[in-house]
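Milestone 3.1: sequence recovery, worked example.
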């Protein structure tokens, strides 16, 4: 939860990315190393995962 609060309280974090942040922190806490998503740019700055676009 500390990771979530640290990013969420940052002035540079856009509110519309809240769902992405919650998802990323949850997956990281469960040990996920690779995230398959079409929207890699949404998670790129978080640096929690290896990102793979399955459509490319």
């Amino acid at each position: 939860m500390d990771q979530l609060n640290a990013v969420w309280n940052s002035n540079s974090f856009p509110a519309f990315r809240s769902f992405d942040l919650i998802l990323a922190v949850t997956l990281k806490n469960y040990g996920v190393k690779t995230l398959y998503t079409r929207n890699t740019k949404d998670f790129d700055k978080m640096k929690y995962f290896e990102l793979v676009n399955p459509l490319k």
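The first strand starts at residue 34 and ends at 36. The two ends are 33 Å apart (CA to CA).
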